[in-house]
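Box 4.2: Ligand-aware structure prediction
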Amino acid sequence: MEAQRYDVVIAGAGLVGLALAPALARTGLSVALVDRAPIAAPEPDPATWDSRVYAISPGSATFLRALGAWQRLPADRVAPIEAMRVAGDAGATLTFSAFDFGERALAWIAEERALRAALLPGVFEAGVTVVGGAPFVGLIWGADEARLTLAPDGEEARELSARLLVGADGLRSWVRTAAGIVAEPRPYGQTAVVANFACGLAHHGIARQWFRADGSVLAWLPLPGRRISIVWSAPEALAAELLALSPATLAERVAAAGDRALGELTPLTPPAAFPLALLKLPAAIAHRLALVGDAAHGVHPLAGQGVNLGFGDARALAQVVAARGPVADPGAPVLLDRYARRRAEPVLAMQAATDGLARLFGPSTPWLSSLRNAGMTAVDRLPLLKRALAQPALR
Ligand SMILES: Cc1cc2nc3c(=O)[nH]c(=O)nc-3n(C[C@H](O)[C@H](O)[C@H](O)COP(=O)(O)OP(=O)(O)OC[C@H]3O[C@@H](n4cnc5c(N)ncnc54)[C@H](O)[C@@H]3O)c2cc1C
């Protein structure tokens, strides 16, 4: 079978793969983007709201703007987070304000389907070859190439050859395993329950988060209008209980857990569930391979940073490849090392911060509860420390 040759093959067309593909193609490389799911823009449906939403940091928004995707997001489907109120389980509060940091917003809430629809035109405009509906079934390595085999579509299997293969295929990455990088995501024993609600009162662009005594973390994120999207990261038993509730009872439970800060809640979507896991890798590169996004790192969603880290990977890899100078080969070890070095520190810092918070606010003793609440109150009184803590999430 004759392989189709590319400079770069990106295995996985989630948000990170969709952003990376045009960023690399614009540096003059031939790029293919492959996924087992169809790679197409979802049908717009103004009457409904996607329950998968992301808090996009100002740093990620700048990257998406450079790709032309941010401008394509309909303004009435994106909500700025202008302030954030975090409550501990023993009365402590911590507030962050975009105004205090000199930012227009701490982050922007956007739906997954809107982000996909905004990224896809850039993929086609940049001349990326797109292959959807093609699960990966084989991977072999040569000195100068990686060869990825796709499941047969009709008669024959298809092979793509790349000087650089990028694994962008999510937390349980097939590519990572096939490359022999052994690392199992470590379950948190928690499931995130997500759903959207209409609310009785205006949210004024304020995101709210409660670290609760039962070890769960509840976040309310503003959507445009009087709507919110929630992420309730709950121990398995509580998550199962929440998922079994009728939509109206779940709305009542969510409203009560948030002290009815926005009045009564009305369900807009059924709840969806995402099991949570931490993934730490010894290295995000190997021979002719770079991992990006959740394939390279898994973080707890309490800081809403997973896809932002992934966009950071995409931006860094594209910058390193664009600045390759006399190095013609995009899979050259010198470039991969440079990419790995550039991402090691921000990824480690975000993993340490989110994992530390998830553990600190897990089920605990009363003295630990007092200590962490005292810590929150202390941070709230120190504007410079608050700014230092917020910087990695903003950028
Ligand atoms: C509840 C929850 C809330 C979150 N909220 C936020 C937030 O507010 N902000 C934020 O930054 N992050 C958030 N995250 C994290 C975010 O969802 C992930 O970091 C992000 O979706 C990862 O994108 P990705 O493109 O790396 O991987 P994925 O989205 O997992 O995409 C992987 C792609 O690879 C394809 N694929 C996988 N295996 C194969 C195979 N064998 N063959 C062919 N194709 C394959 C899949 O079809 C998929 O298209 C949240 C996560 C959860 C669980």
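In the box above, the bound molecule is flavin-adenine dinucleotide. Residues 12-17, 35-37, 54-55, 135-136, 168-170, 174, 192, 194, 231, 274, 293-294, 301, 304-308, 310 surround flavin-adenine dinucleotide (CB under 6 Å).
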